[in-house]
Fold these 2 entries.
Entry 1:
Amino acid sequence: MWKRHPGLVPESGKKHLEEKHSLYDMPHPPQSHPLRADPRIMAFSYTQLIGITNNFARNIGKGGFGVVFHGCLENGKQVAVKLHSQSSPQGEKQFVAEVQNLTRIHHKNLVELIGYCIDGVGLALIYEYMAQGNLHDHLIGKAGRILSWSERLKIAIGAAEGLEYLHHKCLPPIIHRDVKPSNILLGPDLEAKIADFGLSKAYRGDNETNVSTNVVGTPGYVDPEYHNTLQLTAKSDVYGFGVLLFELLTGQFPLVPSSGKPHIVQRVTSKLVYTPIDAIMDPRLGGQFDANSAWKVEELAEQCTQASGSRRPTMTKVILELKDSLELEVGRLNSKLKHSEDIDTSLMSSFEIEGDTPGPSLPFAR
Ligand SMILES: Nc1ncnc2c1ncn2[C@@H]1O[C@H](COP(=O)(O)OP(=O)(O)OP(=O)(O)O)[C@@H](O)[C@H]1O
Ligand SMILES: [Mg+2]
């Protein structure tokens, strides 16, 4: 599993749409940085990986890069070890690109790279461990609990802040290219961080677009404009984020091939004509959300998934809208809390009144 065998057939279940050429046929490859540029990034030997993962005992996931294992460093810090799979259609070049990108990117809403392993026989990336797994598992109910509306909004804000950092605070800016719930990981308190910069691409400024020879992304999340023109901009990530917002609202999958309207954008927007927002909301929320807050997110999701990238908002604007939406939901929760406190208080005072008022005399115990 560890050794690489060139020429193996790519994994059949791989969802990425890679056509004709490799991911690395890009006009502006990420600028090269020495792997040890950041002293905080640790180099591990394969033997050390065996030690920290207890001989790869706990498998926590699998993706295009390979299998992910739980590990524990000597200092007790928990990590996720992403092993390169021999059957991955991606490869050493992606590995190097991912490390190069990550060594220069640090933000509270981006999964932190702790180290890497290139020791001749294999490749691995070692990340901070995100205890609550990925958002996709939470949305499909695999994580064992249903996310409330306010939790969904907080997760969306965290993820949006991570993307905003990539788009507007990195030089050159970074486009993620694979925004989707399985690439949003959750910490112990459900704090959201963006994972997987393997598909990220440094580009050289807002006015310059990148033209590539292949489409990269996951079906359902790929910006149709990028798909048609092969011109990649940050607005392609905004499109993927809009699809993700529709998922947070509805709890539905982005693509349902058997449906008359397979894509979530058409499915949701067509349903909303003359219908209240409840018609599209995730039934597992049990109606527990502020309708104006939900409408705001629905409108935002529509704007993010506009056919033309130029009509989509920036991630900075997305964050502002999401924060407004959260404020509305917090208002609802506070008034609900106040209402239940008022009921408690009135119950208490009625007890007090009852206590003060002489009631019917009770028989004494004998
Ligand atoms: N740092 C981490 N902490 C905890 N779990 C992780 C971590 N990184 C990955 N995982 C788990 O491993 C799974 C597989 O991750 P991976 O990024 O390889 O694939 P993916 O995101 O599901 O698909 P793709 O290859 O298309 O991005 C994730 O969905 C997540 O549940
Ligand atoms: Mg991933």
Entry 2:
Amino acid sequence: MARFGAFRSTAIATLTLLSTQQGVLRAQEKQAPKSAPASVATTSQPNVPVAQYVGSETCKTCHEKIYDGWEKTPHWKTTLNTAGGPSKQGCEGCHGPGADHVAGGGDVSKIFTFKNVSTKEINNRCLTCHAGGPQHMNTINSIHTQNNVSCISCHSPHHSETKEFLLIKAQPQLCYTCHLQRKAEFEMPFHHRVNEGLVNCTDCHNPHGTVGPKQVRTSSTQNAVCFTCHTDKQGPFVFEHEPVKIEGCTSCHLPHGGPNVHMLRVSNVNLLCLQCHTNSAPNGKTGNAPGVPSFHSQKTFFKSCTLCHNQIHGSNFDQTFFK
Ligand code: HEC
Ligand code: HEC
Ligand code: HEC
Ligand code: HEC
Ligand code: HEC
Ligand code: HEC
Ligand code: HEC
Ligand code: HEC
Ligand code: HEC
Ligand code: HEC
């Protein structure tokens, strides 16, 4: 695992060296929860008298094993949040006030247990501290939330299997527990090396929700996620190839993987180009793509279009994307 981790960091670092943008994007997201707990004023337990809270040390007297595990997680930090008050601290920050539970000798009906409650109730508990910031601001309406995938479908504050992020399982296995069909795409001959641990699902997706479709991340400037690693494709170029900018990378590439070189949607580059560059009636979507000049006839010669037009993502020198 450690070896994979190092491999992943080195490989990504080579790509991201070119890309300060990815750094900025991740940094912004990571800052969010740090400031969130102190700055969020709302609470899931309004108007509960302070006397109803007993403090984590009391919980420890009966739940020592849980306490010892929990003490090693980042949530331990909440005990230092004196400004937030007892409803934001320790065990009771999530489980709510515990005085009645303790008085009842551990009466389970007097404590919030996360069992038999709705996704909304679970999420709201966690969001009292984790709302806001670019990472979580779209959680409430995300497709995961709508389908009852709650915070604790992926995270476990007490029984996590990962060093970071309190995940139930490491990626990509976490995601494959529900998205098994996607696994086959990453096993195709040409693919992003997700199964190998080089790229994560969450490099491209935000499972907490996004503004755009399919939970695909965008940068803070709303650019396609692909540019965070493939910076050389971003330009700006003097001569842009319109579909790269307008329809996006996925108009020609499959994002996960596929049977064709360079993860192209079509097996033959020429057929890809000719989907848009036809001399026959334009097909609406690609109406302004010029047809190929007559000397290009596929009958008289057959050469890969990108043999000549090889700066297909954009060029600073040539309008027809030669070198
Ligand atoms: C970040 C929120 C959070 C904090 C803080 C927290 N818990 Fe929990 N607790 C949960 C959730 C969620 C569950 C449901 C099981 C799971 O998903 O891990 C749970 C389950 C439990 C259970 C049921 C048994 C089990 O092993 O799952 C006990 C007991 C418990 N917590 C006690 C505590 C004690 C004691 C503390 C403080 C040391 C504490 N919790 C702090 C969220 C939290
Ligand atoms: C006097 C001992 C005692 C103290 C103190 C205590 N508990 Fe418990 N707690 C119990 C017992 C007994 C149970 C039920 C046994 C079981 O099912 O594990 C329990 C169960 C729980 C459960 C799990 C219920 C379930 O079935 O999932 C949670 C959550 C919990 N306690 C949280 C807390 C928190 C938070 C505190 C501190 C505010 C706390 N307890 C303090 C004795 C105690
Ligand atoms: C579908 C799975 C999934 C769900 C649902 C989910 N998370 Fe996450 N969460 C992840 C993964 C994977 C990571 C780590 C990768 C990353 O940075 O996005 C993460 C990271 C985090 C982080 C740390 C990173 C950061 O920048 O904030 C927090 C805090 C967090 N999640 C809280 C929540 C809360 C609160 C909920 C419920 C409202 C939730 N998550 C729902 C999968 C999920
Ligand atoms: C009382 C406030 C509070 C509540 C409620 C809360 N958290 Fe947190 N959470 C924090 C703080 C503080 C951190 C540490 C942030 C940091 O290290 O900067 C944190 C960190 C995390 C992380 C990141 C762990 C890592 O390794 O970086 C995850 C994931 C997370 N919380 C999930 C949850 C989930 C799921 C719930 C609901 C079951 C929840 N939190 C409820 C305050 C809270
Ligand atoms: C507990 C099950 C579960 C887990 C775990 C889970 N998902 Fe999902 N996910 C769903 C469900 C249910 C949907 C709703 C749409 C569907 O059926 O695909 C969904 C939707 C999505 C979508 C949007 C699909 C669309 O058509 O708009 C993406 C992207 C996604 N998940 C990515 C992830 C990633 C990345 C992870 C791992 C970090 C993950 N999911 C973990 C259950 C899950
Ligand atoms: C290199 C970026 C990238 C990675 C890595 C990635 N995805 Fe995606 N994924 C995308 C893009 C872009 C789309 C949207 C495709 C579209 O709209 O045609 C997408 C679409 C999806 C969808 C919706 C599929 C559909 O046909 O509607 C799901 C579900 C999904 N991804 C899950 C995952 C899971 C699970 C992982 C990790 C195992 C993962 N993705 C890794 C970029 C990525
Ligand atoms: C108009 C179709 C089209 C679009 C849109 C497109 N590509 Fe490509 N891409 C290609 C073709 C064709 C090749 C293979 C070039 C060759 O045969 O030499 C390729 C090759 C690549 C390669 C591998 C070779 C290299 O140049 O590094 C990467 C990486 C790549 N594309 C990324 C992207 C990204 C990122 C985007 C979005 C910014 C994108 N592509 C948009 C057609 C496209
Ligand atoms: C987290 C970084 C990252 C992101 C984000 C990313 N890629 Fe990649 N991509 C890579 C790496 C690393 C490789 C090299 C794969 C290898 O050699 O295994 C690659 C390879 C490719 C290739 C194949 C290059 C070849 O030579 O055949 C294409 C095409 C491509 N990516 C397109 C995309 C598209 C489209 C997106 C956005 C949906 C995207 N990438 C997002 C890291 C990324
Ligand atoms: C999704 C549709 C689409 C695909 C696929 C596509 N193109 Fe284009 N292409 C366009 C559009 C639209 C323009 C912009 C025309 C303009 O600027 O007026 C363009 C412009 C061009 C131009 C510049 C024409 C000029 O004189 O300005 C060349 C050369 C070209 N494409 C070659 C290719 C090649 C080679 C491929 C295959 C690798 C390809 N295109 C794939 C839509 C597409
Ligand atoms: C042998 C080299 C070569 C190959 C292979 C080639 N082209 Fe060209 N292409 C050219 C030349 C030369 C021009 C004219 C450039 C100019 O006018 O400056 C051109 C021009 C174009 C234009 C611009 C037409 C306009 O009206 O502005 C398009 C579009 C185009 N090619 C598409 C393609 C497509 C699609 C393929 C593959 C089916 C392809 N080319 C294969 C050499 C090539």
